[in-house]
Design a protein that fits this description.
The chain is mainly alpha-helical and 395 residues long. The protein has 14 helices and eight strands. Helix 3 crosses helix 7. Bound molecules: protoporphyrin IX containing FE and 2-acetamido-2-deoxy-beta-D-glucopyranose (NAG) (2 copies). One 2-acetamido-2-deoxy-beta-D-glucopyranose binds next to loops.
Length: 395
Amino acid sequence: MFSKSLVVLAALATVLNAAATPAPAARPVTCAGGQKTTNEACCVLFPVLEDIQENLFGNDTCGDASHTALRVSFHDAIGFSMTNKSFGTGADGSIFLFGETELSYPANLGIADAFNLEAPFINAHPEISVADFIQFTAAVSLTKCPGVAQPTFMFGRVDAKSPAPIGTVPQPTDQIPIILARMADAGLSAEETVALIASHSIAGADDIDPDLMGLPFDSTPSTFDTQFFVETQLAGTVFPGSAGNAGEVMAPIKGELRLLSDQGFARDSATACFFQANVNNQQLMANNFKAAFAKMQSLGQNTAKMVDCSDVLPSVIPLPGAQAQAFFPSGTDQEDVEQACPTTAFPSLPVLPGPLETISNIVQDPATDGNCDDDGSGCVLSEFPKAAKRSASEL
Ligand code: HEM
Ligand SMILES: *[C@@H]1O[C@H](CO)[C@@H](O)[C@H](O)[C@H]1NC(C)=O
Ligand SMILES: *[C@@H]1O[C@H](CO)[C@@H](O)[C@H](O)[C@H]1NC(C)=O
């Protein structure tokens, strides 16, 4: 009886394995261009990498192009629900494939920049899915930002057949329990959500204050350091521009913008201790982000059918030792900390010497301007002939 059921189980396992098309077996190869990778299936990514390195990122050193490429990876992937199939198929390219629809949603305001930046390259590379292009370019963008852990990259996403509905992307005006519920519905815990918010260390806002672009979320928007977690915990005293913008609250230094949602993550009882744990802990921040980001990048996709192409990614840039030390921006100190984590004291940090700073705007990349507008109009991938051919054949 016992051995009989084992036989049945083994047979069942064989059937199940046969049903799922296995990923191509790892076979270390030298690709046509001379690059080495552990899996032949990854060779196709090298020409894409070369093209985006030279022509999309160019000389971008964790500036606007990198930030833009990173943000869209989240807005595409989060179109997924563990409980409702109508919420989309996750990291599936739908944000661009159905740009006219999804980019008209208020939560996607500003993602038109990413469409304009990436659409010509998606057109030039019909050999990979739109979904893979978005996530690959985001992984490459991270390697521009000193301080990240070496990212992973899984390859083999299937493109969307329909758009994600409105309501999948959290907004800065949403209350923290609402944001956490949406993230949990997509499969991401409160701790993973805070880990992902480390992305706001290399980020800023173009569309929150109607008069100002490139307003950074911390004083070091081109390094993946822990300053975002320090500065978001300080009492807000000043707006970079006008008051009264939805989703914005006061920041501790002139020139910086603080999102209402980030203020909430730093203070809500469900997230405050996870948030504070990042302060002056570069390794924890980098490792937690890496893990949560890898999970995010495959939401809704069958990872069993995907191939690990992490070794195609360029090496990351280490954070110079001195910069791994978090600090209070000049003009602020320990007294400005709005301590919210009840169990652990806020780390004591040095104060950056010098006069009160004004943080400079992030310089805008002109390639983020184009026919795709912030209301979704003109965000039509099918206007790019090769992209259209490929997506049509998959639909
Ligand atoms: C979960 C709640 C989140 C909310 C409410 C939120 C909200 C925002 C908002 C309002 C902006 C400014 C957009 C603009 O005005 O230009 C922004 C920027 C950005 N966000 Fe988030 N975000 C969240 C999570 C994430 C995640 C998970 C990632 C990536 C893993 C991410 C990456 C970025 C990046 C890189 C930017 C800067 C874009 C640029 O400068 O072009 N965000 N976010
Ligand atoms: C990068 O900088 C080099 C040297 O300044 C310049 O020749 C090149 O055109 C730049 N590339 C891009 C894509 O802007
Ligand atoms: C699933 O999501 C769709 C699209 O947002 C919505 O119309 C529908 O009511 C949802 N179904 C359930 C059971 O929540």
